[in-house]
User: What shape does this take?
Amino acid sequence: MNRSELIAAAATRTGLRADVVEQALQGIQSAITEALSTGDRVSLTGFLTLEVVQRSAREGRNPKTGEALNIPARKAIKVSAGQSLKRAVADS
Assistant: This one.
């Protein structure tokens, strides 16, 4: 499902116009982005948890040449599925 399909599905389920759903989705996206960029954790209980984690520097390999290379430390986003989402997927 892509973004436009998600908007259409949410509009159908809620009875709202697609442009209203798109505005809400944009607002949610920007709120989540802002929260994560300031280091906050975003938790939608039973659905998803998003948090920023620090990845340490490590040594990797170029898969084409096998040459060793250093991968620098960086921040990454960790996504964890909630119990309701896990059950829904497991039962399908």
Strands lie at 42-44, 48-55, 58-61, 68-71, 74-81. The chain is about 45% helix and 30% strand.
